[in-house]
Each structure stands twice: as structure tokens, then as C-alpha cells.
């Protein structure tokens, strides 16, 4: 189906590496927090950073404090080249770190800073809520005067944001930097798969930019074969990953699953989610707030609305969870009985609507990242609706008093059809209240393919299709190494 391709071991993460390197080269002791969802690439990033530096990496387990202290001492003993350090008994973390720092082999002869990484720090917290207090004391009493860089990393975003980064955390105010590792930006997906631009957008719509998920997709077979093998087959990794992710992140995972399923089914307001799930309004409101806080969903209001606007809409932000709840979760019984092919065949009839919605989300993301409208700097960018009127993307550039009005269509458009969409857009735009008397207006359309786009561009409209996206993506990646 496609030519062979080799996927680089390490893709993008230039900003993250620059962040870590900058803190390593500072002249103060560093306590860095790295966090992000499962499989997003935190461990690969940290391992690459640590590769040529003095220090060591430890991954915590869920076995409890005593076991983790023993395992940490074992790894530290290897770094120190001291078998006796491994065999010693340490009553707590503080005693262990005190012995580590005072060891004759701890600091290299070169005087370089030592890096200590504790990955899955959230595991330690889940087993012992006193861990943040213990590490606060370790930092204050032992590490804060040393030439050291301590990196605490975790995959439970909620735990890391509340128990480590939160205002009430004992570690609050100790950190010298933090970074949430995000999925890869859309253009990098082509580094994994030799698909057409249309297929790459569908890949993004199904699994997003999570590196571990992208590596599961075999570049030698079709998109649909990959979906069948990796998502719609019993025992496949991505068939169960969503449930594992949610149970890992939340104690009451069942309620969160009910809410996400409702959102996926089109119930996007607080009241409709309550009706669909049967859960109490205050409870649903709390759960939605938590989901938004860890960036699995987004709560939306019209781009012109004030902060207190109540009629918010909620949508799943994560493409993989979106697809899983739309296609996988409702058909688990068929998948369990090896009817994944039938599920896929049935789903393909509905998927153009799904891909259309995801295309809008992708267009918003790539515009936020500077694609298509490089001459505009948006102070606000989002959806807009009022009564029966909707516009996919509206953006305001305060510096130039320009307003962007853009529609996104997952279809091939004739010139006549494109003109009709743009004409409708110009009729709706006066309803958008923002500097109506002084603004200049930019009308835009993004679609799969637009016939006659040069004619429409000559008339002042901004038009982009997948051909333009492909060229912009290639240009964006041209400086990537």
C-alpha cells in the first residue's frame, strides 16, 4: 500500500529540551516538575536529556514506600558504584537522600551538576499522601544548597497539578520550573505514516498526536486496517487504553466515563449531560471542571461572551478519547465477540460527520499555532453562536482591529458552493459584536479541496485546502532535525 519508512526514535520536543537544558545550565539548584498524560513521551524526553549528563533515572512503582526506597537505593548505588549503598537500610526518604548527597562519589570530579529523576512521582503520592511533605523537607534541608537538578515527573495530570503544583501542596513555591508535555503538533504525524493529507487528518482525528499511539499504527497497511487491528480487536492496546487512562486518573472513573459518553453523543450542555447521565447537577459540574482542568475536555462559550456566560458547551478535546467513545465504547460487545470488521464497516458510514467535527477542531489548533493567517495576532479565537446562527471560527486581532470569520468544511467544494458559504458568512458577521464600526473583516474558508480558489482569492477572500496545509506542514518541518 505504501513505501517503507523509518520513524525517528525522537521527534520534535525542541522546546522541551531547550527548557530542560536552560535550567540545567543555571547557577541555582533546580527542582523541575514534568507532567503529562500517559504515553505522551515524557520518559523518552527525560531519558534523552539525561543521556550525556551525570545522574540517574528512577521510575517509581505502586508497591508502597518501603519497596520504592529500596529500589531507589539500588539505582542510586549503581550511580555511586557502591554495592554497600544498595544493601543499607533507610528508614525514610530523608535518610536516603542525606546518605546519597554525602556519599564520596556523588559529585563528579568535573564539578558538573547532578541530575536525579523520579519518574511516576504520582505513584508515590497515591500510596502515601505524606510524600509531598517529605520531599519538601528533603529539598529545604538537603538539596536546596547542592549543585543538583531534581526532576519529578508524573502521568496523573490531576495528581501532579493538585498535590505537586497546587497552592496547597507542601512543594508549592519550591519548584524552579514546570512543563506539561503535550501531544505532538499535527505536522509531525507525517513523520510516522506515509499517508495522504486527507488520511493524516483522519489519523489525527482518531489518535491525535500521542507518540506511543502513532508508533502502534503500521505504515505498511491502510488507515482502516490499522483502526481494525489496534482499536477494534479484543486485546489490542488502544481498545482498552481509554479505560486504563481514566481509571488511572480518577477514583470514580465510572461517573467520568458516563459524562464523556454523553458528551460524545452530542449532549454538550450541563443540563443535557445531567439528564443523560442521571447524575446530580452539582456533581456533574464538578466533574466537568476536573475534566477541563486536565485538558481532556474544553468548556466553550461564544468568543464574544463575557466571563460569566452560563450557557457553556462542553466538548471532548482529546481526539483518541473522542473516537473511542464515538466508535469503540458503544460496540464493546461486538468487539469482544470478534466482530470488529462489522463494527468498522457500520461506523464508516457515520464517520464523515465525525471527521467533519474533528476537522473544525484541527483547524482551530493549527490557526492557534500560526498557520494560514500569519499576518494576524489573535487576542481571542474560538467558536461563535447566537440563536440559530453559528460560525466555526471567529478571531479578533486587537493590534490591527481585524476580525476573522472562517468556516471549515470536510468536503470538496466547487467554486459556486464556496461562494455560497462565503456569502452566508458575510451575512452572519454583522451579528458578531466586536468593534463593528471600526473593524476590517477577513472572510475565510478551509476545506478538503476548493475549485477556483485563485479566483476567490483575487476577490480578497482567504481560502485554504489540504494542498495548502500539506505545503505549510512541509515548510514548518523543513527546519526540524
Automatic annotation (TrEMBL):
Alphabetical keyword list: ATP-binding, Nucleotide-binding
Name the domain of life: Archaea
Annotated ATPase domain residues? 10-215
Q: Which Pfam families match?
A: ATPase_2 (PF01637), DUF234 (PF03008)
Any GO molecular function:
ATP binding
Q: Does the keyword Phosphoprotein apply?
A: no
Question: Where does the DUF234 domain start and stop, copy by copy?
Answer: 324-421
Which Gene3D superfamilies does UniProt cross-reference here? Answer: P-loop containing nucleotide triphosphate hydrolases
What's the name of the protein?
A: ATP-binding protein
Amino acid at each position: 500500500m505504501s513505501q517503507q519508512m523509518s520513524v525517528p526514535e525522537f521527534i520534535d520536543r525542541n522546546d522541551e529540551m531547550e527548557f530542560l537544558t536552560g535550567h540545567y545550565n543555571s547557577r541555582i539548584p533546580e527542582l523541575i516538575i514534568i507532567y503529562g498524560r500517559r504515553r505522551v513521551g515524557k520518559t523518552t524526553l527525560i531519558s534523552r536529556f539525561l543521556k550525556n549528563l551525570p545522574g540517574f533515572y528512577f521510575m517509581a512503582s505502586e508497591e508502597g514506600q518501603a519497596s520504592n526506597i529500596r529500589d531507589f537505593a539500588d539505582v542510586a548505588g549503581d550511580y555511586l558504584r557502591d554495592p554497600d549503598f544498595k544493601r543499607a537500610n533507610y528508614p525514610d526518604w530523608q535518610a536516603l537522600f542525606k546518605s546519597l548527597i554525602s556519599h564520596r562519589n556523588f559529585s563528579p570530579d568535573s564539578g558538573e551538576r547532578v541530575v536525579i529523576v523520579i519518574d511516576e512521582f504520582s505513584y508515590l503520592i497515591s500510596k502515601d499522601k505524606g510524600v509531598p511533605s517529605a520531599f519538601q523537607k528533603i529539598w529545604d534541608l538537603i538539596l536546596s544548597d547542592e549543585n543538583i537538578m531534581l526532576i519529578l515527573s508524573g502521568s496523573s495530570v490531576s495528581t501532579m497539578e493538585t498535590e505537586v503544583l497546587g497552592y496547597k501542596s507542601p512543594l508549592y513555591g519550591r519548584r524552579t520550573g514546570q512543563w506539561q508535555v503535550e501531544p505532538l503538533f499535527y505536522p509531525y504525524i507525517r513523520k510516522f505514516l506515509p499517508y495522504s493529507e486527507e488520511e493524516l487528518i483522519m489519523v489525527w482525528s482518531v489518535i491525535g498526536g500521542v507518540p506511543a499511539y502513532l508508533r502502534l499504527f503500521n505504515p505498511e497497511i491502510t488507515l482502516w486496517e490499522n483502526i481494525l487491528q489496534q482499536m477494534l480487536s479484543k486485546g489490542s492496546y488502544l481498545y482498552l487504553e481509554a479505560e486504563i487512562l481514566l481509571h488511572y486518573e480518577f477514583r470514580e472513573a465510572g461517573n467520568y466515563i458516563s459524562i464523556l459518553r454523553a458528551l460524545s453523543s452530542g449532549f454538550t450542555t450541563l443540563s443535557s449531560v445531567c439528564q443523560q447521565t442521571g447524575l446530580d447537577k452539582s456533581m456533574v459540574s464538578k466533574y466537568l471542571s476536573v475534566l477541563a482542568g486536565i485538558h481532556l475536555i474544553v468548556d466553550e462559550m461564544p468568543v464574544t461572551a463575557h466571563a460569566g456566560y452560563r450557557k457553556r458547551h462542553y466538548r471532548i478535546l482529546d481526539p483518541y478519547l473522542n473516537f473511542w467513545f464515538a466508535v469503540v465504547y458503544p460496540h464493546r460487545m461486538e468487539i469482544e465477540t470478534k466482530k470488529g470488521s462489522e463494527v468498522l464497516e457500520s461506523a464508516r458510514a457515520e464517520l464523515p460527520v465525525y471527521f467533519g467535527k474533528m476537522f473544525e477542531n484541527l483547524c482551530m489548533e493549527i490557526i492557534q499555532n500560526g498557520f494560514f493567517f500569519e499576518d494576524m495576532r489573535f487576542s481571542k479565537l474560538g467558536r461563535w453562536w447566537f440563536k440559530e446562527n453559528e460560525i466555526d471560527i471567529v478571531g479578533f486581532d486587537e493590534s490591527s482591529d481585524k476580525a476573522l470569520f472562517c468556516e471549515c468544511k470536510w468536503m470538496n467544494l466547487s467554486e459556486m458552493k464556496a461562494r455560497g458559504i462565503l456569502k452566508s458568512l458575510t451575512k452572519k458577521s454583522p451579528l458578531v459584536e466586536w468593534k463593528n464600526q471600526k473593524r476590517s473583516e477577513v472572510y475565510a474558508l478551509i476545506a478538503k479541496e476548493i475549485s477556483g480558489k485563485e479566483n476567490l482569492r483575487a476577490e480578497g477572500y482567504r481560502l485554504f485546502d489540504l494542498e495548502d496545509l500539506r505545503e505549510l506542514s512541509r515548510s514548518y518541518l523543513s527546519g526540524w532535525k
